[in-house]
Give the backbone structure.
Amino acid sequence: MKKIINILIISLTVILYASCTPEENDIFPESSANRIAAALKADKDILTSAKNGWLIEYYPSSSQAYGGFNLLALFTEDGKVTIAGDIANPDNTAISTYNLIQSAGPVLTFDTYNEILHFFSDPKNPSGIGTNGKGMEGDHEFLIMEASKDKVILQGRKTLNRIEMTPVAADLVWKDYIASIQELEEAASFGVYAYIVDKTVVSVSTNLRNLSMSYEEDGELKEIGVPYIVTPTGFKFYRTLDIGGVPVDELIYKESEKALVSPDGKAKLIFPPAILSGKWYMAYSQLGAYGKQCWDIVNAGNPDEDLYYVYLNEGSLTFGWNPRGTTSLYSGTLGLSSTFDDSHVTFSYNGVNAGNGNYYMANVEDFSYILYPFEQVTFTITMDDPEHPTKITLQDVDDPTNTIVLSNKVIYYPSEK
């Protein structure tokens, strides 16, 4: 009897507990499919809200090896997208389609070929940039990291690069904007620069829109790559550049200074002097006493040939010899490395020769003397016209007898006295 009573008590307790247990409410009243569809629609509404399109700061390659490029993109409700870019003619646009899908988050995909956008992801780049089979290794699918009507942040699914989109002003004319970028790049892009910050002079070379910088810090050689994108006003870096404790995010083009300058004026990317671009001819009569002495030795060591020309070409020394009594010409180039600031240039022989350069250095007696006026020498630069020089005077800062006057006019048989 006691067992029966105990069983009844336990059963009643269970029934009472069950009747008091609250019902679980569904936290997500909509299905996951509906939630995803709603999120993608919200992203599409944002993309199509910019009636004059979006400015996209696009970086191909996971290492940003080629720098960044400007794209303008107009998204429409019917899934079409119109794209322009600074790699194309300002008047050119390309129309293709886009889609929004769910794949570990909302993804914007350009799902049909667009000749401007896919320039960066085509395995066989139309301009031959990158290696065949890889091209520039850019993205055409992007994870949407955040989205608002003021800004959209994307992440390349392959490169993981940050891609920023901002709405284009209603009154901006696309072709004018692209043209302004291309015009600034034409004016401000060189093969070499000098970056000067807090008394540190950094040697800079370029690969498309990536600055390769070399400098010493605490006695150690530092080499860094600095990817950038061109804007209508200058260069904007992918990430903050910090040398000497001076952070820089962008540089503004200053035509009067022949440089790109940080907004606070603490850093400058100086354009190379005119002597490092084009051809600048030398002549015996335009050398100081030291240079004439060196040329006398060179000519004495090669009595059967006449110097036909000698000129600096993009910073290296190019020569031509004419065997006497013939119409033959033997030319070559002797490699010179250079560093510079806004009023000086320093040369040093690097041994990277071309043409008959190596032959003459190895086989013609005392030919190396032609390099002596330049070897490990710093010159002060003076130009007859700062804007359009026709003559450049180099004055050795340590030896007043080492003066070289160069001309942009061709000089044949420069050894004539």
User: Anything to note?
Assistant: Residues 2-20 form the longest helix (19 residues).
